[in-house]
Design brief:
alpha/beta; Aspartate Aminotransferase, domain 1; seven-stranded mixed beta sheet
């Protein structure tokens, strides 16, 4: 007889994006350009000197110190892990679990709910407003009714691109702190926005902000993310994270990358400019286009089915994300902002499909 999967996992499906052989891949929000060659060379040289017979630095001391300096924090206020998903998992292992709940506001990043359920944390769901901004009356209803142990906000929100202003985050934080909850702000795309919840961080605040190296630092292959928050919370994550969870090569890559902040800033500026160009061009087509503070744009065709448009783009070797599986996003597609050349190819395919 085979062992039985947990009852609460049997109906779940994994989080996947199609990986097709196309000329223009704009479906997974990766950086369209690699980091500088100098970064590659420096990482390669450092890896040559790794003591492979020894475990890595369990505390990721150098990486955490450099991240702390970037945000004017102490190393004890920084946690590094294998992508933002391991961060979400670690927080829920420490503060979620059986008998506790996590709140999300749909549509939003699917892994908040999926990881919550995989840690036996109940999920309570609130709805965003018609324009996908947070509905503060709905947020208050969910929080006051359920008093979730963890409340997730995603800003810029994936997949909509909507940014939560600091005053909104501060208001939600006040609600959560009123009963002893935790506010988790996912800023995987934070560097593409002009505002950030990092300005609200404090040793006496029940607020954490997560970010990732995957997008702005052109390091999706490294799977490196980090959390900023009060030292007492960071310390608690050490109780649930696996020993030596962050390998030596990943730590090296993250530490070296922080020495190339100017290159990162230039990439971000290029993508923000390209995002504006794409939004302007798409707004002239029969599409509903949402404003974005991220490196992607959510849109819905008005004259054809979204799935049909997705296929027509694939037929022209352009891959975008079909968002129909998200709540309330029937017919919606999401395009990652790529290089200007990729943007031209996407727009050409889009115009061809819509005319």
């Amino acid at each position: 007889m085979r062992p039985m999967l947990r009852d609460d996992l049997q109906a779940m499906t994994g989080y996947h994006s199609p990986q097709l052989d196309v000329a223009v891949r704009l479906n997974t929000n990766e950086s369209p350009v690699p980091p500088p060659q100098e970064f590659r060379d420096e990482v390669a040289e450092a890896v040559r000197n790794v003591d492979w017979n020894r475990y890595p630095d369990r505390g990721a001391s150098e990486l955490r110190s450099k991240l702390a300096a970037r945000y004017d924090l102490e190393p004890s206020q920084v946690f590094a892990a294998n992508g933002s998903n391991e961060i979400i998992q670690s927080v829920l292992l420490a503060y979620g679990g059986p008998g506790r709940s996590a709140a999300v506001f749909e549509p939003t990043y699917a892994m908040h709910s999926q990881i919550a359920r995989s840690t036996s944390t109940d999920v309570v769901v609130g709805e965003r407003s018609h324009d996908f901004a947070l509905d503060m009356a709905e947020v208050r209803r969910v929080i006051e009714t359920h008093q979730p142990a963890v409340v997730f906000l995603c800003s810029p929100n994936n997949p909509t691109g909507i940014v939560d202003p600091p005053e909104t985050v501060g208001e939600v934080l006040g609600m959560v702190e009123g009963y002893g909850g935790l506010l988790f702000v996912d800023e995987a795309y934070g560097q593409f926005s002009a505002v950030s919840a990092t300005t609200l961080l404090g040793e006496d605040r029940s607020l954490v902000v997560s970010r990732t190296f995957s997008k702005t630092w052109s390091m999706a292959a490294a799977r490196l993310g980090y959390l900023l928050g009060p030292s007492w919370l960071i310390e608690s994550l050490e109780l649930v994270v696996l020993p030596y969870h962050l390998d030596a090569v990943t730590q090296i890559a993250g530490s070296v990358a922080l020495d190339y902040a100017d290159a990162m800033d230039a990439r971000v500026a290029m993508l923000v400019e390209e995002r504006g160009r794409l939004v302007d061009a798409m707004s002239e087509l029969p599409l509903e286009v949402w404003p974005s503070g991220a490196n992607f744009i959510l849109f819905r065709p008005t004259d054809v089915e979204g799935a049909a448009l997705w296929q027509q783009l694939v037929d022209q070797s352009v891959l975008v994300r079909n968002c129909a599986s998200w709540d309330r996003l029937d017919g919606c597609l999401r395009v990652t902002v790529g290089t200007p050349v990729e943007g031209d190819q996407f727009l050409e395919a889009l115009r061809s499909a819509l005319t």
